[in-house]
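@channel sequence for tomorrow's demo:
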Amino acid sequence: MLKSLEISGFKSFAKKTVLEFSDPIVSIVGPNGSGKSNVVEAVRFALGEQSMKALRGRSSPDLIFKGSKNLSAPSRAAVTAVFDNHRRIFSFTNKDNAAVGVDFNEIRVTREVYPDGQNRYLINDTPIRLKDVVEVLSSVHVGSSGHHIISQGEADRVLSVSARERREMVEDALGLKIYQYKIREAERKLERTGQNVKEVQSLRREIAPHLSFLKKQVDKLKQTEVWRTELQSLYRDYFVRESFYLKTTTADLAKRKHAFIVELRELSEKTKENTTGPDKQVTELEKEIKQSENSFQSVRALKEELGRKLGRLEGALEVMVKTPHTAGAKVVNFEEIEELAAEIEINLDEALAIEELSEIAPILERVKELVRKFLDKRNSISDSTPIQNTELSKLKESRQEIADELRRVEVKEKEILSNTASLRQELAERREAAHGREKAFYEISARKSQTENALKMLSVEEEGLITAQLAFENELKEATVLAGKEATIFDLEDSKSDIDRTLQVVKLKKIEKIKIRLEDAGLGAGEEVFKEYNEVENRDQFLAKELVDLQGSIQSLKTLIRELKETLHLEFTGGVEKINEAFQEFFTTMFGGGKASLTIIKETRRSILSGGQGDEEELSEEEKKEGDPEVGIEINISLPHKKAKDLNMLSGGERALTSIALLFAMTRVNPPPFLILDETDAALDESNSRKYGDLIEKLSKLSQLILVTHNRETMSHAHVLYGVTIGTDGASKILSVRLDEALTVAN
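structure tokens (generated this afternoon):
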């Protein structure tokens, strides 16, 4: 029920004007041009009317009061329609397409328009959209241009419009507009959903090649993960063994190097102690021995000379002693004998020095010749040479001197031999000591050289170990990059004491092969590929799910549209039957008999476009698609005592009565909360006005009636009269009169 209407700055209503509609029938009266029709347009405006033609304006600013001499133009126009909602009849549709009641006792629908043409809508002073206003009002079968607002022209319009438009008017009267609205909404959603399906399918087609490419990349990367896991295992085993090897080898190398350095230091000290070089004492001894040997030779030569002399003297003495001093004896000079003995001795010494026997014979011949010559010489000596005693004495004395000298020489020889032997013994001992030192020196030097070579070999090993350590560190870095940090985490307690370097080489070759595979696979960008693949796959799955949801929505929308259309068809068919009953009743009342009914027909746009000739070959595909049948309504009447059945053949009064009968029939079947009749009785005579008044009384029991009229008969049925007039300021004013109170005062 419409409780009141608040108008401010709208058209001719400059100031705020409030009309209360607390009675079943309210009549608005006034002279032409006073602004009473502006009240009806204010209701249309508040309910969301968008047609400027229906509001009798060219643009939104035309709806604002223009001002007068005494009144300035307002900054806006505003109309508020206040509805009673104690029974919670107003509702709106939530996102789940379910009706939700508006929990307010009073619903205030406000529309404001500003000079710039902007419109603002509010419900209970809360800004909302026009769509929300239409939805809330449609829940109680109220609209800006529905069957509940009927003007004189619109009353006749129900007879003059096409069958399809008449069907729409009937649907509106039956309150089926909400179904049409929901169907259109569902169809728009269906169209949008279909477009979304195409877009989603297009997006999936676009990302499909890239997703396929990424899938192959991911498959490769998954294989690289297998290699990576294997590489981690190989690396850990390799690192634990290599680390143990480097640690133990480094320690062992350091230990050996230290031992060699200590040994080399000791050998250097020993080398200093056993340094070889010329021994002065040996040289002195050698000189002394040489001198002693020379002395010995001299003494030996002297001894030999003395021995020879002594032998010769003894020989001479022996000869002199043995040879008697007889007459005729031959006397031999001792000096001659010495000369012979010396020459013989020289030849014998020469013979002794010769090794070949063949060379000794000539020497013996010479000796033999010397002896023969000596004998021949002696034979030639006179036998009468006497032996002198003095010579014998001299020989003995000489022999004694030579014997004494020889004894002294022999003592000297012994002394020299003893001294020489001592010197030789000391020299031998010295030489033996020097030889020992030399031997020790060479042995130490050899050992020192071996130690130095060993240190050089250790240096080579050390360089190799440093190279191995660097290679180990590089492998750790590469392992971190290619196999992750897990590959470099190992425990030395798991190491094996029997490190096989050949096994390490084989293992490193396996590692290198897997590294090459991983590098070829591009593991460095693996995380990005996985991330992109997951994003694209999630996007595709989301689109696939969205596609399923959209297709489900399409099916749901199609089902909803089908159900709405079925409901609309059933409601429409049933509603037409009920309207026909009321139409017949009202028609009979208005005309005193006759027949009236509505007939549901089906016509196609194709028949309209082809001019009814049925020539489909010249129609476009779009026109053929638009050839689906459309439902329309035809009006069938039969006036009493007349043959006229065509609506075009009716008089103005007959058309007015027929349209009123039909409009009232539609109103009774689905009574709106309020019904505005704007001079629908203008064409009625007095008799028909009474019939019209009787119908109004009946309708007031079903709906609240607001009547804009000049007809006194119609006014007589109202409980409250609002008189509209133009004041001296050029603005419309309202005067109200309650007829029951006026009658009491009049009586």
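heads up for whoever presents: The radius of gyration is 78 Å.
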